[in-house]
Amino acid sequence: MPDRTTPTVDKRNMTVRITTGLVFAVFFLTLLWHGDRPWAAWTYLTLMAVAILGGVREMTLMARVRGFNPSLATGLLVAWGILAHFFLVTGNSDPLPLWAVFAGGFLVIHFGALFFDPKLEEALPSQAITWLAALTLGFGLGFQQKLFMLQGTLPKTGSRLVLALFVITWLGDTAAYFVGTFLGKHKLAPRVSPKKSWEGAAGNLAGNVAGAFLMVATVCTEWTWVDAVALGLLMGVAGQLGDLVESTWKRSAGVKDSNVGVAIPGHGGILDRVDSLVFAAPVLYGYVHFVLGFN
Q: What residue intervals traverse the membrane (predicted)?
């Protein structure tokens, strides 16, 4: 019998993960290649809207496991409103300002519950979770949409930035998995995610920085090595915090995966795939906008 203490990789699950990832990569890279076409922004908007639907649904179902009753419909409307804001705002033109989205959200989430929520005794946590789902998915994926639409001196600036977001984040996740599996000894947050280690976290940051340098050498050639180090570290820390935050939600709900019944083969739920991205995307946008001056 094999030594139970010997680190192992689930080869079957890894094969499924890689296969699913390759299918997604073909679609995603095709979209990015055509990022300057008029239809590309609408296609990416549709992709983000579908991802928001999946994420809000998963947060809603996790909360219902604990007996709360957040509203999928109103949380989704507010999240989509935030996404639409990022899609529509250009320069000084803001057809759908955030104040209008939040005002409408207040009406549909709180007043709507008076008429349609059968469990008003859980109104406080239920409505708070509805807002949490809307804000987390709306802003996290809305910033991805904003990145896709940014313009710079290089052609397809937005496509380059979105590709950088995914490569930097996912190289970090991959490095964390293998470093944590074979070298992890010191628990990072045992109450939240017992398998995560400080060694894996360090590997994650190394992977993030390596991904940033890869982007400097290939698609984001305007970045300097200082930008690569800064973005790798900032996005790495933000992404790992996002991962831990989602793990906290799953643990509080008593579920192993966020999908609650519907999974991406080999990858779990939508939240399991975007937890790092929804925290890393605002960091990347903030850096390229305020430090590098992209608009």
A: 14-33, 39-56, 68-90, 96-116, 128-149, 161-184, 205-226, 276-294
